[in-house]
Every structure is written in C-alpha cells, then in structure tokens.
Amino acid sequence: MTAALEVLDTGPLSTVQDLGRPGYAGIGVGTSGAADRAALRLANRLAGNDEGAAAVEVTFGGFAARALRDLTVVVTGAPCPVTVGGRGAATDTVLRVPGGALLRLGAPERGLRSYVAVRGGLDVEPVLGSRATDVLSGLGPEPLRRGTVLATGPPPAHWAPVGFAPVAAPAAEELVLTVVPGPRDDWFTARALATLFGAPYTVTADCDRVGIRLDGPRLDRARDDELPSEGMVAGALQVPPGGRPTLFLADHPVTGGYPVIAVVVAADVDKAAQARPGLRLRFTARGRRGP
Amino acid sequence: MRVLPCADSGLLVELDDLDAVRGLHAALRAAPPPGVTDLVPAARTLLLRLDPEVADSVEIERVVRGTRPVPGTEGSGELVRVPVVYDGADLAEVARLTGLTEHEVVAEHTRREWTVAFGGFAPGFGYLVGGSPRLEVPRRAESRTRVPAGAVGLAGTFSGIYPRSSPGGWQLIGRTGLEIWRPDRDPPALLRPGVRVRFQEQR
C-alpha cells in the first residue's frame, strides 16, 4: 500500500466505490457500490485491475488530484474534459500521470458520473468486504475531501490487452430504459401502466445515489391498503402516495413500504445512473417471461 | 406462494405469513441456488436478489417452488441475552395504551423469548416477534428526530433495538448497553434473522 493521489478538489461529491457489499441485506445493509457499474468495470479492465477494484466516483466533474508518484489512470463514465499536467487527455483510455502532475476532470458534457481508476486499485479500509461509500447508511469511507490521500494496492501482474475502449455517449435529451412490469403492477390501475409506457418522465433535481425522483403524470393505484415493507432492488420504480415514481439506484433502502410498479433491467440501471436533472426518460416494456 | 419478477435483478416470493417466510428463508439460506446474492425476508415476502449475469431466474423459480420450508424454525437460533434498563420516555404511555402498569409492561417484555424475524430499517436493526401479544402499540404519532443507540422500543406487534443513533417513531421503553451493531465484528449484527432474544431487566 503506497500513497498515490492527493485530492485537491472533489466537485459536488466524490466517493470511493467498488462493486459493493452483497450478502448483507438480511441484516439491513444495502449493496451500494458504483452507481454505473459498467463504467467502473471498464475503467478497471483498462487499468489492468480486477473488475471490482475500488476507484473514485466523481459526480458532475470538478475533481482534481496530484499524483504522488508515476501512475497509470483510466477515466470512464460521463465523458468530461480531462487534463494531465495541464494538457488535454482522453476518457476511456489508458493515461500516464507522472509523479507531481495534476489530474483534473471538468464538468461532463453529458451524463453525471465519471470514474477514475488507478492501476493497483484504491486501498482504503474495507467495511464488510467493500470499500464503497454508502451515502444512505453511512457505511464505508467518508466522501473524499480536499487533502485526502489515497493509496493503491500492489500493481496487478498483467496489462489489459487493449488501451482504448469505444463507448456510446450517455443520452443528451431523452433516455429510453427497458423495464419489466411488477412485482406490484397489480396494485395499480391498468391506465397507470399505459401512462408509464406512454408519457415521458423528467429527472428532477432530487437525485442522488439513493434514487431519482421523477416528475410526470401520476400513476394511480387500484388499491389503497398499506403494503407491508418488502425487499427492494436497484432499478425499482417505487410509487409513493403522490403517484410520481422514484427510481432506486445503488444506495437504495434495503426494504420499502410503497409498491413497485416496474423494475428497470440491470444493464439499464447503469444508464439511469448517468441521468442528470432535466433529462427526459421514457420507459419501454420487456414482457414478463411465460408462465 | 406467488413468485413475482423484479426484472432480472430479483424474484419476490409472496407467502401466506411470517412463519412461511421464515421456513423458506431457513431452507434457502442453507442451500442458496446459484446466482442468488441476497435473501431479504420481510413480513410476508422473501426477496431473492439475483446476479443478472449468472442467475437463471426460470431455474431459480423452479427450485424455490420445489423447496420444502424448514418447519418450526422457532427456538432453534442462537440465544442473545439483552440487559435492559426500563426507563424509556414512552414507558408510561405504553402502560396507558396497553392497560398494564409499567411494572407489568416490563414483566411482559421479559417474560418470553422474542425472535428476530427480519431486518431492513437500518444496518443491524432486527424486527423482533413472538414476545407478547399484550404489548401491541401503535407507533408514536410523531417521530423523534434522534433516538440514541441501544434504545429499546415497541411498534405494532414488534419490539426492536436501535443499532445506532437515528430518527425513529417507535415507543421507547428502555435502553441497553449491549453493542447491537459493529461493522468490524464478525458477525457485525447481533440480531440476525432467526436469532432468539431474551430481555433481562437491569436496575
């Protein structure tokens, strides 16, 4: 474990994330981990790390850090202007950051969350097997601050076979997410499902790692009784009494007491994690599997 | 049993009652099907969280439907003794609501074993059932913004212990010095589903 990066600026929120801590939901611990898991995995693969190594999740740019020795770094996720030692650099590719040089991420043109992987993986104290910061339960390391020094583990034995990955840019105006109705679609009127698939919903400013509150037409319930709390998954569209759904992301509560009308498929939850306020969402159905 | 989809991330199994949930949870915990990352029991449901890259949800549903619930899981879990000082801010109100004296509330709370049915509210929190039907009380009309760690409360038919300081709306009857939740301990939570709890009055 050797010191690698000194954080100079964090933007709105920068945290350490890996693939989270599955297996503890029974005692009330959420999975957490990178909001855009595919972007974290890609950053690690390009850096030659294990897919689940810890990296920095930068929310809406503004991250700056000084390399404390020569580093190999990869930036993925929301495409943002990157500079190394003041010179322009690219995302989704392997970068060399010489000791003493400044790595800087500007605000992304599209998307919300960028990932900074360092070869060797970030080495902070794991909690229940993960280095992820869970903003809901407070488990894991504190969010990064100016002055935080991050260390890395030993460099892996191998390099990635490629040094660059072509990646589709996040949606600029409208994002289409595939969902499967249920588990509680039968708690809603038939019209509610038609509305969910027919009308656009807008990402509000009330969005964080826990979930995204959406604005759009009401989804009306067919029954008014109270649902006993039940287990939740990332991607769930939970509908509180106001009728506007909340889309759960990585740090969602383990259980919830409002019915879930539909769930976004896992691959699209990563795309949802890149949705910024004002983005329009449309939902399209993938049918239930047969009986 | 109804098995409801949560896209490719989970299967929500809806059961008749808490006993059925506990029986199926015990059976699946002993032999989790491949691709199941988490089992989340609740009052009437058991959520199986799936790793979408490896789980075959059709096969897992088949396994779940063919699983024989473990009968009578009650009384088989580890026993945790919890010393409690019964001086909670809502003890008098609980006595009024139940028609008991404060002394009788304490006697009811300590008389029988409780069992952790499920968690979910916060890391380490366990919903305890089976203690005493005479202690059924509603949640407080107004939630407290801060309940200290170790506070012992009642709500509905449940009892519970706050693992960390947090907001909360349960009726508080006492406090324990026992460390309910410690992330660097194995296991981190004392009150895991299936664990039996015996409250003991500490003066």
TrEMBL record, chain A:
* GO MF annotations in UniProt: ATP binding; hydrolase activity
Which sequence ranges form a coiled-coil region, renumbered to this chain?
A: none
Q: Name one Pfam family in it.
A: CT_A_B
Q: Which UniProt keywords apply?
A: ATP-binding, Hydrolase, Nucleotide-binding
Q: Does the keyword ATP-binding apply?
A: yes
Task: List membrane-spanning regions.
Answer: none
- Carboxyltransferase domain boundaries: 26-289
Name of the molecule in the record: Biotin-dependent carboxylase-like uncharacterized protein
Identify the species of origin. Answer: Prauserella shujinwangii
Q: What is the lineage of its organism?
A: Bacteria, Bacillati, Actinomycetota, Actinomycetes, Pseudonocardiales
UniProtKB/TrEMBL annotation, chain B:
Q: Which keywords belong to this entry?
A: ATP-binding, Hydrolase, Nucleotide-binding
Domain Carboxyltransferase residue range list: 1-191
Molecular function terms in GO for this entry?
A: ATP binding; hydrolase activity
Q: What are the coiled-coil residue ranges? A: none
Q: Which Pfam families match?
A: CT_C_D
NCBIfam families from the xrefs? Answer: 5-oxoprolinase subunit PxpB
Its protein name is: KipI family sensor histidine kinase inhibitor
